[in-house]
Amino acid sequence: MAAITAALIKQVREETGAGMLDVKKALTEAEGDVARAKEIIRAKGIQAAGKREGRKAQEGTIASAVVDTETGQAAYAVELNSETDFVAKTPKFVEFAQSILEDAIKADATDAQSVLAAPAEGGTVREAVEEAASLFGEHVKIGRVAKVEGPRVEIYAHRKSVEMPPSIVAIIATDEAGSAVAHDAALQISAMSPRWLTREDVDSDVLESERRVAMEKTSDELKAKGKPEAVIEKIAPKIVEGRLNAFYKENVLLDQSYVKDPSKTVGDLFTEAGGKALSFARLEVGKSEDE
């Protein structure tokens, strides 16, 4: 019987695309015979994980939790994707997502790569995810990952329906006073999808692009109305600033109209509470940056 080495397992995995546990079992049954192991894998109908890679995994869930730290609190969130909502809502899939979250917290992982590299039972999270593809019969992958820290941290997890696990998770870090309105702010983040906390946080290249587009649009509109160049040069900047303000109100959390009372902004909400919002994150199933 040939020794079942890591190199042998790797070879069969690369040639079949099957998961590690399936390969180990097949090699053990085949007493180390690679050709026979490959026959066993085919005979058992073990679908190659590699063949699933091309299939979109845009369903799933987001597992999240708040933990206490030496300086306050930290919230972690991990998106686990599947191909169908049928798999996403099964207890085993939800439990698997929770186990990955726990591994991420132990490793203090802050992105998908560090989660995949984190230790898990019997290996790494990456290996566990690969095995999960065989277990669930679908392409399974880690999506977005977030860690938010502050004196106080609030999480709101939104479900599309009662039978489905959370598909949107909003996290916000605040100071102590701001925690009084943190839940309302998390609801706002979930519903309105802000991209930045403050105007100063907006990426400079994004802002410049918005300004150029606003200027071109404004100039074209004024020219279409027959305004002379001298008038356009005088009034266009004010119109452009108005359009940028509208951009801020749509995309900047503290500038957004508060959904429960549009007469005030989210910034007003924190001012009234005497507190501050420090940072936030929003994860939504199927909206990963690499999709």
TrEMBL record:
Domain Translation elongation factor EFTs/EF1B dimerisation: 76-287
Keyword presence, Plastid: no
GO cellular component: cytoplasm
Start and end residues of each stretch annotated as Involved in Mg(2+) ion dislocation from EF-Tu: 84-87
Coiled coil: none
One Pfam family here: EF_TS
Molecular function as annotated in GO: translation elongation factor activity
Keywords: Cytoplasm, Elongation factor, Protein biosynthesis
Highest taxon above the source species: Bacteria
Main location class: cytoplasm
UniProt keyword Cell wall biogenesis/degradation present: no
PROSITE patterns documented for this protein: EF_TS_2 (PS01127)
Compartment(s) of residence: Cytoplasm
Entry similarity comment: Belongs to the EF-Ts family.
HAMAP family found in the cross-reference section: EF_Ts (MF_00050)
PANTHER family: ELONGATION FACTOR TS, ELONGATION FACTOR TS, MITOCHONDRIAL
Functional note: Associates with the EF-Tu.GDP complex and induces the exchange of GDP to GTP. It remains bound to the aminoacyl-tRNA.EF-Tu.GTP complex up to the GTP hydrolysis stage on the ribosome.
Full protein name: Elongation factor Ts
Organism phylogeny: Bacteria, Bacillati, Actinomycetota, Actinomycetes, Bifidobacteriales
